[in-house]
């Protein structure tokens, strides 16, 4: 069964460093998303991406964040200068279009 | 904007007993509804969805949910749980014309032998 994959599973970085989280969505899906879940809190929407552009983003998704689909398979989330409060589990999802399928997540720890 | 409330943060239940997880939502527009399950140290897995049609929807692993528009609810049920159902369950909604999922706070189900 096709699935969304994410790498790495765990990333530790120092405050102020740039990180790139990678995702491979399900191959025939057209819509891509990033969500995050801070420990003990709700899963929160960050951004959706369709047709090579951002279709919607949340207030959390400020200028420190960017997304890219550099080739036909990968979908990345970049955090330019990480803060302590960026520590969270980051989930990638894809859909075609309503049922969103999630990857296993990347746990980002900012020290 | 949409919001989702899961009234129970934790539900302990004995094996083979029934379980109901409550979910209420608010929205000024039509929505689609979903339940996801997160097993320990894993991602979110889609359990079931309501897009249209019959208000009683069946999902994987013996779960079902009923959409009640008048009560703006989408409660999840399973008649007999297994130890393997121990997980966190999330209710989520999406605008019918949108693509952003709004999640509830989750309900942690602990199945005891």
For the sheet with most strands of chain B, the description reads: 6 strands, mixed
Strand content of chain B: over 45%
Shape of chain A: globular
Could you tell me which chain pair has the largest interface and how many residues each side has?
Answer: A-B, 26 and 22 residues
Oligomer: heterodimer
> How large is the radius of gyration of chain A?
13 Å
Poorly predicted sequence stretches spanning 5 or more consecutive residues of chain B:
none
Radius of gyration of chain B: 13 Å
* Proportion of strand residues of chain A: over 45%
Alpha plus pi helix count of chain A: 0
Cα end-to-end separation of chain B? 41 Å
Instruction: Tally the beta strands of chain B.
Output: 12
Taken in chain order, the helices and strands of chain B follow as EEEEEEEEEEEE
Helix content of chain A: under 10%
Mean pLDDT of chain B: 94
- The outline of chain B comes out as globular
Structural class of chain A: mainly beta
Question: How many helix segments of chain B?
Answer: 0
Mean pLDDT of chain A: 93
Low-pLDDT ranges of chain A: none
The chain-level structural class of chain B is: mainly beta
Structure in a nutshell:
The complex is a heterodimer of chains A (111) and B (113). Chain A is mainly beta and 111 residues long.
Structural account:
The complex is a heterodimer of chains A (111) and B (113). Chain A is mainly β and 111 residues long. Helix content of chain A is 0%, strand content 51%. Chain A is built from no helices and 11 strands. In chain A, the strands form 2 sheets. In chain A, strands 2, 4, 5, 6, 9, 10 and 11 form a 7-stranded mixed sheet that branches. In chain A, strands 1-3-8-7 form a 4-stranded antiparallel sheet, with no helix packed on it. In chain A, a hairpin with a 2-residue loop joins strand 5 (43-50) and strand 6. The model of chain A has no long low-confidence stretch (mean pLDDT 93). Chain B is an all-beta fold and 113 residues long. Helices cover 0% and strands 53% of the residues of chain B. Chain B is globular. At the A-B interface, strand 4, strand 5, strand 9 and strand 10 of A face strand 5, strand 6, strand 10 and strand 11 of B.
């Amino acid at each position: 069964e096709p699935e969304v994959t994410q790498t790495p599973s765990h990333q530790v970085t120092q405050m102020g460093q740039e990180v790139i989280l990678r995702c491979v969505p399900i191959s025939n899906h057209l819509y891509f998303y990033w969500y995050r879940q801070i420990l003990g809190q709700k899963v929160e929407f960050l951004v959706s991406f369709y047709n090579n552009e951002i279709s919607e983003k949340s207030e959390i998704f400020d200028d420190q964040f960017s997304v890219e689909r550099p080739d036909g398979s990968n979908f990345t989330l970049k955090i330019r200068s990480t803060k302590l409060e960026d520590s969270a589990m980051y989930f990638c999802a894809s859909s075609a279009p309503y049922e969103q399928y999630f990857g296993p997540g990347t746990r980002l720890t900012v020290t | 904007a949409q919001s989702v409330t899961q009234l129970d943060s934790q539900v302990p239940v004995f094996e083979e007993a029934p379980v109901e997880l409550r979910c209420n939502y608010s929205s000024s527009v039509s929505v689609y509804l979903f339940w996801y399950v997160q097993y320990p140290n894993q991602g979110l897995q889609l359990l079931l969805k309501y897009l249209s049609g019959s208000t009683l929807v069946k999902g994987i692993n013996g779960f079902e949910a009923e959409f009640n528009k008048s009560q703006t609810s989408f409660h999840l049920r399973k008649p007999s749980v297994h130890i393997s159902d121990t997980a966190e369950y999330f209710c989520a909604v999406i605008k019918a014309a949108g693509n952003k999922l709004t999640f509830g706070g989750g309900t942690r189900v602990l199945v005891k032998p």
